[in-house]
Design brief:
The protein is of the alpha+beta class. The protein contains 3 helices and 4 strands. 47% of the residues lie in helices and 24% in strands. A 4-stranded antiparallel β-sheet has the order 1-2-3-4, with helices on one face.
Length: 171
């Protein structure tokens, strides 16, 4: 009887060890599969991050005055502070929206809706060019402007010239 108890105990222990082995093996394979999936996902995300970083580097120079160091140095060498210069240019351009005549002093198109043509958005490209959009509420367009700043004594004389313009047709 003692031998049977040891035999049953041995078989029970063997089954218990076999169960533990199979269970542990399944758990380890599951963890290994999850780890592989996470590593693949991590690699894909790293590649995406690197691609975004590459796009950021190439788009860093997106024709904006704020990211164009040469344009800022040009005006700093002329004695201007960039923090005051950019708002000055934009304010001068927006002040042209206040006019009494029928035609805007800078927009090359007359209003066709009965309202005044107004410059509504401005982007400084560099130390010589500006892109501006204009609208009268129904019709809109864009224009590329050149600008020059002449300093006579303490007075700053700003002159804009239209390089190219386009009026979109309403949809």
């Amino acid at each position: 009887m003692k031998q049977r108890i040891f035999m049953y105990l041995f078989i029970f222990t063997l089954l218990l060890v076999l169960f533990q082995y199979v269970n542990s093996k399944n758990i380890i394979e599951d963890y290994d599969q999850k780890l592989t999936n996470y590593m693949e996902s991590n690699t894909a995300l790293r590649d995406s991050i690197q691609m975004i970083k590459d796009e950021e580097v190439t788009s860093l120079y997106t024709f904006k005055f704020d990211t164009n160091e040469d344009a800022m140095i040009y005006w700093e060498d002329q004695g201007f502070r960039i923090s005051e210069f950019v708002p000055f240019i934009k304010d001068e351009l927006m002040s042209l929206n206040v006019y009494d005549s029928e035609d805007h002093p800078l927009v090359p198109y007359a209003s066709m809706s009965g309202q005044k043509m107004l410059i509504d958005q401005i982007r400084m490209l560099n130390h010589k060019w500006i892109i501006a959009s204009f609208t009268d509420g129904k019709y809109w367009g864009e224009m590329l402007l050149g600008y020059d700043l002449e300093t006579v004594g303490n007075e700053k004389n700003l002159k804009f010239r239209i390089i190219e313009s386009h009026l979109y047709t309403p949809r």
